[in-house]
Amino acid sequence: MPMGRVTGFVKTVAVALALASPAGAQGLDEAISLWLADNDAEALPMLSQMAQDGDADAQMLLGQIEAVTPPGAGSDFVTALPRRERIALLRAEGGLSGTSWLRVREEEGDETAAALLASRRPDADLDVARTLVDSGELEAGSRLAWEIFDRGRWNEIFALAQDDPLLAQLDFVLWMRAYFGNPPSTATWEWLGQTPASGRSGGMMMISLVAPVLAPHLRPNEQLREYSIAQRGFPAELIESGNLPAAAEVMASQVAADENLATVAAYCEQTCPEEPGFCAMQVIAQVGGMDNIRLHDTPLERLIPQEDFAGSDRAVGQLRRWMGSIGDGGLAASYTLSQCVREDIRAASAIQ
């Protein structure tokens, strides 16, 4: 290893050992607080040392942080590390690229770790989602259920019994069922704004795919279809139809109440508070749709509740870095819904 890398690696290990020493051991709670403050330089060496010392919670959290951070959303501290140092910090020993701490936990018989790993396979089913929900990982379980639907395996979702505990976590299914029970007739934007905020985006996307096949007479009208497509990250039809202001008004109320958009709400409040609806729609377009917003769930819910994560400096900073890494090179570059957000994306992109 070149001398510069050796020096950098020694410094990283030294920080970890100092923080983990009897005089300076702050424990897992302190490491989590630092991580939520977006302070990887202190949090990750602490977690790494605890994981190496055999702390199962630190191993699980470190494995999940590595696994679920969106591409391009890593902190400056992590991205500046040479590859070998980054592997030593985030992973267990083993192989050329190290071993995920989740894999270590799975080999130790941890059912939650096994379910989290299984959830990333394309053949993962609702039994895996139930295992996650039963273990307290509600966000991961509901995200898997959405992916199962989005892959076209509708029957698995529709077959859920009314009393199935998993169903209570699937707000997009509950919204869909409410739609079929009381579809809009007139005043579409007013009706839409009165529907439950949580589950609205997912439910609308679900309806737009399912209704034309299962209930053609209840297929969404043009306004709802435009809004649904915008949730997929394509607002062009809303812009062209002139319905963008009405949609942004609906989104302004949604982003304030939709738990799935809590990080977007925190970002918009900090960055563009005068235009929450337009801001949220620009963010959704930038990251390629609401499906991808789900990447911003807490990495490990039993240690970091979703409500603690969603509005944290970590979540907002991660979202901003992610958008900056996409920059103006993506499809969203052709959509200017919020000039304020576009300018912030350019600033974040310049930092990277």
In short:
Helices cover 65% and strands 0% of the residues. It is mainly alpha-helical. Helix 2 runs antiparallel to helix 3, helix 9 runs antiparallel to helix 10 and helix 17 crosses helix 19.
Q: How confident is the prediction overall: mean pLDDT? A: 88
Structural class: mainly alpha
Total helical elements: 23
Give the oligomer, counting copies of the same chain as homo and different chains as hetero.
single chain
| Overall shape | globular
* Alpha carbon gap, first and last residue: 26 Å
The count of strands amounts to: 0
Main sheet specs: none
Radius of gyration: 22 Å
SSE string: HHHHHHHHHHHHHHHHHHHHHHH
How much β-strand is present in the residues? under 5%
Helix content estimate: 55-70%
Low-confidence stretches: 1-25
What secondary-structure arrangement, pairings included, does this model have?
Layout: H1 3-20, H2 27-36, H3 40-52, H4 56-68, H5 76-80, H6 83-90, H7 101-107, H8 111-118, H9 126-134, H10 138-150, H11 154-158, H12 171-181, H13 188-194, H14 200-214, H15 222-231, H16 236-241, H17 244-257, H18 262-271, H19 276-286, H20 290-293, H21 306-310, H22 313-326, H23 339-351
Helix pairs in contact: 1-3, 2-3, 3-4, 4-7, 7-8, 8-9, 9-10, 12-14, 13-17, 14-15, 17-19, 18-19, 18-22, 22-23
